[in-house]
Write a structure and sequence with these properties.
heterodimer, A: alpha/beta, 26% strand, B: mainly alpha, elongated, binds adenosine-5'-diphosphate, binds magnesium ion
Chain lengths: 264, 195
């Protein structure tokens, strides 16, 4: 099976390279091994992927397939055991602490399954934080934060704390915060997993709109097949490997096939 | 094909942000702030009281007194350290999150240290006032009018300094160690740390 996967990836690479599109993220042979006492868990077993500037790519795969780990590595939140991640051709392993902080602050926006809004702060303060870290003056940060919160539909609730917001609203704050510094990449790890279906769809639609409006690259993992329609490409992960990587228009049938193949 | 390579820049520490982070953290976690203040000031008051209390000349009494001092001081030191440890471990997740937003390790460490230093200072001041009141009351009972004599309060200055310093140092260092650990963790690990 690993051989087949390698071939699939290589095929797509060839196709990709011949198109010569700008590539924002490139993963080469990324492996992650978690050590739990004496036990070793191979969460990623050599992931290769190329993600293009401005595309919306969805990552699918059963739970435990390594999606979160892939995110954390791509986002510079943890170091891979082997392999490299390039963001705009820069190997992020080469960055020092200040550069890594800059990358996280200015170039990447993170959206997590569990929102991760700073509990003691208001929506406004949460959205201002990355701007303040980036050196935006207080007044301007506040003005822009209100603007973005209004954009995500929370204009009336800027002074609310997470306690006073629903899950969907908290995730909107997280989206506003992720977009605050106009990043080049949005990394969203199952952003809708804790939300009901309708709210989830709204959140995904919002991310898609931001992707269109700002041309930001969105990498979003999800369990939900309905989310696939708005994706430009879809990447399937399984058992720490990229099983398939295909454009949306190529996969109509393949989704069913994949489903058939992996029905428990 | 436009191939716009980023110019990677470096984020620098913003001192004014450390202040506002420390202050807002104190304000927003008022419950925790007051609890810590209480613990620190009790520790300082107690220490100052012990240092200024009249000691009897009987060697057996002195020994007993020494033992009591040591034990109860240990208890209050452990109380302060525990409070600070909890106050930092409770926000591992938050620390991981703000690191994702661009917080430098040094920012995390310095803002937590500044916050606890402010707490320690305020707690020490309150504690000294409390300790003095306590000692004065005790002295009044013990020596009556003698408590107004200057000799009764000999060395008061350094006793105040010692107790204030102990309170401040315990609070700041008690927070600095767990904060340094949290600041150095990769963001994901910190975010996993606590629910
Ligand atoms: N911190 C960790 N320590 C040990 N094992 C982990 C840790 N995080 C994830 N894993 C394991 O790595 C594998 C991939 O996990 P994960 O990346 O979370 O997958 P997904 O997000 O697709 O559910 C799983 O087998 C999981 O149990
Ligand atoms: Mg996951």
């Amino acid at each position: 099976m690993p051989e087949a996967t390698a071939k699939t990836n290589a095929d797509y690479w060839m196709a990709d390279l011949s198109q010569a599109v700008d590539c924002t993220v490139m993963a080469r042979g990324v492996e992650v091994v978690y050590e739990m006492g004496s036990e070793k868990i191979h969460a990623l077993r050599g992931v290769d992927a190329q993600i293009f500037t401005g595309e919306y790519i969805s990552i699918m795969g059963p739970s435990g397939s390594g999606k979160t780990t892939f995110f954390n590595v791509v986002g510079g939140l943890m170091k891979p055991t082997a392999g490299s991640v390039y963001i705009d051709e820069i190997d992020i392993a080469q960055l020092d602490a200040g550069e890594l902080a800059w990358l996280r602050c200015r170039k990447i926006g993170y959206i997590f399954q569990s929102y991760n809004i700073v509990k003691v702060m208001t929506a406004l303060e949460n959205v201002m934080l990355p701007m303040l870290f980036a050196g935006v003056p207080q007044d301007e940060a506040q003005y822009r934060a209100v603007e973005i919160l209004t954009r995500v539909g929370l204009g009336e609730r800027v002074l609310h704390t997470p306690k006073e917001l629903s899950g969907g609203q908290q995730q909107r704050v997280a989206i506003a915060r992720a977009f605050a510094n106009r990043p080049a990449i949005i990394l969203a790890d199952e952003p809708t997993a804790n939300l009901d279906m309708r709210t989830g769809e709204e959140i995904i639609a919002l991310m898609k709109e931001m992707n269109r409006e700002q041309g930001v690259t969105v990498i979003c993992s999800t369990h939900d097949h309905k989310m696939l329609d708005i994706s430009d490409r879809i990447m399937w992960m399984e058992d720490g490997l990229v099983k398939k990587l295909a454009r949306r228009d190529e996969v109509d049938i393949q989704i069913d096939e994949f489903e058939e193949e992996h029905r428990e | 094909m436009s191939r716009n390579l980023w110019e990677i820049k470096r984020l620098r520490l913003k001192p004014e942000l450390i202040w506002s982070m420390a202050l807002s953290s104190l304000r927003l976690r008022m419950g925790r702030t007051l609890l810590t203040l209480l613990t620190v000031s009790a520790c300082c008051a107690f220490l100052l009281f012990l240092l200024t209390a009249p000691i009897s000349d009987d060697p057996a009494d002195r020994q007993m007194w020494g033992l009591m001092i040591t034990l109860s001081l240990l208890v209050s030191v452990a109380g302060v350290l525990n409070t600070m440890l909890m106050s930092v471990t409770q926000r591992y997740r938050e620390i991981g999150t703000i690191k994702c937003l661009g917080a430098l390790d040094s920012f995390v460490l310095l803002s937590v240290m500044l916050e606890s230093a402010l707490l320690g200072l305020t707690g020490a001041l309150l504690g000294i006032v409390g300790g003095l009141i306590l000692s004065f009351g005790m002295g009044l009972l013990d020596a009556g009018a003698g408590v107004f004599a200057a000799a009764y309060w000999s060395g008061l200055g350094w006793k105040i300094l010692v107790s204030a310093f102990v309170g401040l140092a315990l609070t700041t260092l008690g927070a600095a160690f767990p904060a340094a650990v949290a600041a150095r963790m990769p963001p994901v690990e910190a975010m996993r740390g606590e629910k």
